[in-house]
């Protein structure tokens, strides 16, 4: 008997007249169910859209689960009318919420990633139970319609089998991610409970070399080379040896991390490297009669198939379908084998994701430029700093071009200051002797004679000061009279008779041998001199001068002294203009993040600086940090430089909401 609940999970009614009740449970997919009611059944009023219906298999007592009413179909014929209801498991409530804008998790555990999605529920229908995996994959979502798709995608990169399980008996409902049992638990045997078996082998979808591609586009699209030894593909050697090489390019732009992309591709390769084998079995559910667990079929269980033609083998049950648990409770359909999404299904899924991806930009190549023009020298280099953001996907190119010019100034004087008086410190006295020079004899050229009369000057009268007692010599003693011979008893004296100094007479005094003076002095006296106004006529005849400078030296003595300097209050006018030095640097050293670029030329064009940019431990250019280029000339100069970057950006920031 079915039980219906409203959206608040409150029971409304039992649907005792329901018939054609069936369900289909698929491993790790959304379950579906169905039932019908007569058109005239009063309980139809409770079966409104999005109400819940609890299904229990009365034939076995198995609790199937809680489902939500989705579409309904009303069909009326002449005999009767019927309403057919289609249901989805209440896991579909995760479709009611969205992931708006961009979401990314990095190096979180599997449990943390699942919990993050469950936290986005506006109404907390689901809580998290057991999680038996701990993987550290990167996940990103953007504008996802519903949480279910992202939730089911979390374990897809796993390299082992997994199973989602649901407990809807208590609210909030419980979601778990567990390892399915590898223990054989049931059997389908020919002539026992096997009514029909169908085996389909499809080798056309075999893929044994896969080229994974993630986010981005063109040359910037993410691949696995950096985490796969430089190879852009994964392959299965055994499958290639058996079936030949079958290549496939697998694209999923959800992936922004190369390691996660590789893990997911490896899981797909294991499934795709062998032909798809599907067993569709129509069986009898004998557990209705026997109650034995070996006769009970559940999704995810390991089943043994025993068939005289196909042999004996073990496979996992991927789908359990009971089309009518009331009308034909023993009929059950199973899908068994390595059921995986085939290439067509994968392509369809990719198309769905592309529709989501169309709602936002994966990224684009941007050209950025950093310019520099300024004076610099060896102690003050040209410095160009630029920032690379975290959402930078790839540095396509980054080049430096520069040239060197003469140092440039823009004025030649500064404004004046106030007057100052300053005395220099006293210096020590010094005595210096110049080096002796050679004697020189030289005659000047003969010049013409000239006559000149000075201007008439004023007459003056002046008296000397009194004093100066003195005597006058009247005769000089001469020891040699030449040809004059005095008497033997006389001593010789000579006096001059005129100013020319010519001897005019000889006077002889006996017994005296010294100069003769007047008897007495004139006494203290003064002289009055009157010089009338007069002039002088001077005539200089033509002449020349001979002079001789002998070897000589000079002694110079500078005593201790100081200087007093007074600067009056004054100003200097500023001469505005552009003035350049006459010389330029002859070498320039370029460094990028501290690494020296080879060469020291004063100019360069399109120098690739990507190899010199600072890298992280994985060899990628550092994001979320500043980078620096310095150009150091060996003298005063001016640098004109330009850095041009071509960057692929995938922006996840911005918008108003």
Q: Could you outline the blueprint of secondary structure elements for this entry?
A:
Elements: E1 2-5, E2 11-15, E3 19-26, E4 32-38, E5 52-57, E6 62-76, E7 81-89, E8 98-105, H1 110-118, E9 126-131, E10 139-145, H2 148-153, E11 163-167, E12 173-178, E13 184-189, E14 194-202, E15 209-213, E16 234-235, H3 237-243, E17 247-251, H4 258-272, E18 276-284, H5 287-290, E19 302-307, E20 311-322, E21 331-337, H6 343-357, E22 364-376, E23 382-388, E24 392-405, E25 408-411, E26 420-423, E27 430-433, E28 440-443, E29 450-453, E30 460-463, E31 473-477, E32 491-496, E33 503-509, E34 516-517, E35 528-531, E36 537-540, E37 546-549, E38 555-558, E39 564-567, E40 576-580, E41 588-592, E42 595-596, E43 604-608, E44 625-633, E45 637-649
Parallel strand pairs: 9-12, 13-19, 15-17
Antiparallel strand pairs: 1-2, 1-5, 3-4, 3-20, 4-7, 5-6, 6-7, 8-10, 11-12, 14-18, 15-16, 18-21, 19-20, 20-21, 22-45, 23-44, 24-43, 24-45, 25-40, 26-39, 27-38, 28-37, 29-36, 30-35, 31-32, 31-34, 32-33, 41-42, 41-44
The pLDDT mean sits at 80
Number of strand elements: 45
Report the span from N to C terminus. 47 Å
CATH topology term of the domain at 364-409 and 581-649? Jelly Rolls
Determine and state the CATH class of the domain at 364-409 and 581-649.
Mainly Beta
Structural shape: rod-shaped
Total count of helical runs of at least 4 residues: 6
Any idea what the radius of gyration is? 61 Å
Describe this protein's structure.
By secondary structure, this protein is mainly beta. Among the domains are: 89 residues, Elongation Factor Tu (Ef-tu), domain 3 (Beta Barrel); 84 residues, Phage tail protein beta-alpha-beta fold, CATH 3.55.50.10; 115 residues, Sandwich (Jelly Rolls), CATH 2.60.120.380; 39 residues, no CATH class. Helix content is 9%, strand content 43%. A hairpin with a 3-residue loop joins β19 and β20. The longest helix is centred in the middle third of the chain and has 15 residues. 20% of the residues are buried.
